[in-house]
Amino acid sequence: MMILGKHGSLAVVGALVASLGGAASAGAQQHGDGFLFSAPSGAFTLRAGYAAAAAKGDLVNFTTTNLTLSRGDFSSPAVSADLGLWLQNRTQLQVSVGYAGVNRPSEFRDYVEDTQAGPNQPITQTTQFQRAPLSVSLKEYLTSPGRNIGSLAWIPSRFAPYVGGGVGAMWYRFRQSGDFVDFQTDSILPGLVLVSSGWSPMAQALAGVDYSISPRFALNAEATYQWANAHLSNDFTGFGRLDLSGLSTTLGLSVRF
After folding, report:
1. CATH number for the domain whose boundaries are 40-256
2. With b meaning 16 or more CB within 10 Å and e meaning fewer, what string describes 175-214?
3. Which of 91, 92, 129, 186 qualifies as a cystine partner to 87, CB 3.0-4.6 A?
4. d(CA 42, CA 160)
5. Residue 154: enclosing H or E segment and its boundaries?
6. What local confidence, expressed as pLDDT, does residue 148 receive?
7. For 241-253, b where at least 16 C-beta lie within 10 A, e where not — what string?
8. Rounded to an integer, what distance in angstroms lies between the CA atom of residue 212 and that of residue 218?
9. Whole-prediction pTM value?
10. What's the N-to-C CA distance of the chain in angstroms?
11. Which residue has the higher pLDDT, 215 or 167?
12. Distances (CA, A) of 2 to 5, 8, 14, 15
């Protein structure tokens, strides 16, 4: 049995405190309470929101004039995924893919038909509009997204606003199916399927903000305007280019790595 004096007891207590402190620090590091050694190299973000279509051009004008659709019917919910890689302290390269699509039933505004169901029946059809942008952008943060604490940890800023721009391509599909009116003969064309799809060059501008909820996770809010238009297929002969532009607003969750 060892008997400790006053100074010996203080030494043991000090050793225990140091030991517990070291263990707590190691546990905190293992549970991700800070980035050790360096800042994150990138982030992966999933976002969801709403894509408001500009809905301009001859085909949209024809559709909204003759069918019971409005320009707002071409807008839809949207989802996207981003992979961001840091190039410099405030500059990030972002690769993004997204999707927005809608199916809208309609009928002719000024025409009806007589069928076995009875006279003056609506002439119905469905319009489908899909967009899937693929882009590469540069994002510039207006303030520092985080700071290094010595050489052992990186601490994110609570708010980190940014702006950016990029280029890419947009896949689209415009499809109308159902019964239509031949305006030259006033006869009904039943069961038509008219489709135009393909890829179009695209440019975009964006602005957003990251809100850090931990060193590894952040909430994201972003607004993106995309410019694109496309030639229509022979199914829509006589119409000009289809406008694919629009503003998307989304909320998401980012995971830094």
Report:
1. 2.40.160.20
2. bbebbbbeeeeeebeeeeebebeeebebebebbbebbbee
3. 91
4. 15
5. strand 153-156
6. 84
7. ebbbbbebebebe
8. 4
9. 0.83
10. 52
11. 167
12. 10, 11, 18, 17
